[in-house]
């Protein structure tokens, strides 16, 4: 029996002002998207913004449904729109901001497992890492240099 250790590296910024100007702009777009979230059930509002290599910025917010599983997370709303609208563009960066209307969210809130799987598909497809920045409504910002770093042992086309 052999032990295998898997490491993930994250970078933590004290606040959004500590990131580069383009990341601040992207997070601003994610916050604007967050304000448009439709989250009457969870009151948990999430916004995502993607910067594409053609200069486009694609926004998404979570869209809930009275039939709960029919709703969709902000990240997948954004990434599927990007895939549908600009199938040949590469995604360079993704900014995610999440906050609750019920309690303060000051810690970076990472994308859920289903969103990581969806983002992984596009990272594999474009053969180029996607930089991912995520935060709570305020406070520290976490950065991952790639989705692969957030989802070790990814299930992708190589196993099919
Ligand atoms: N949500 C997202 O939009 N992204 C995530 O990565 C996690 C969760 C949404 C789904 C649901 O509308 C609400 O947040 C509470 O789970």
List keywords for this structure.
160 residues, alpha+beta, Cytidine Deaminase, domain 2, 6-stranded mixed β-sheet, 3 helices, 6 strands, globular, binds tetrahydrodeoxyuridine
Model description:
The protein is an alpha+beta fold and 160 residues long. 25% of the residues lie in helices and 23% in strands. It has helices at residues 21-34, 74-85, 113-126; strands at 11-13, 44-52, 57-61, 91-100, 131-136, 141-144. The protein has a six-stranded mixed β-sheet. Helix 3 links the parallel strand 4 (91-100) and strand 5 (131-136). Helix 2 (74-85) runs parallel beside helix 3. The model has no long low-confidence stretch (mean pLDDT 97). Tetrahydrodeoxyuridine (THU) binds next to strand 2 and helix 2. Residues 39, 42, 44, 46, 62, 64, 71, 73-75, 111-112, 115 line the site of tetrahydrodeoxyuridine (THU).
- Outline, from the CA principal axes? globular
The ordered string of helix (H) and strand (E) elements is EHEEHEHEE
Distance between the termini: 26 Å
Read across the widest sheet, the strand sequence of neighbours is 1-6-5-4-2-3
Q: What share of residues are in beta strands?
A: 15-25%
Ligands and ions found: tetrahydrodeoxyuridine
Mean pLDDT: 97
Kindly name the structural category. alpha+beta
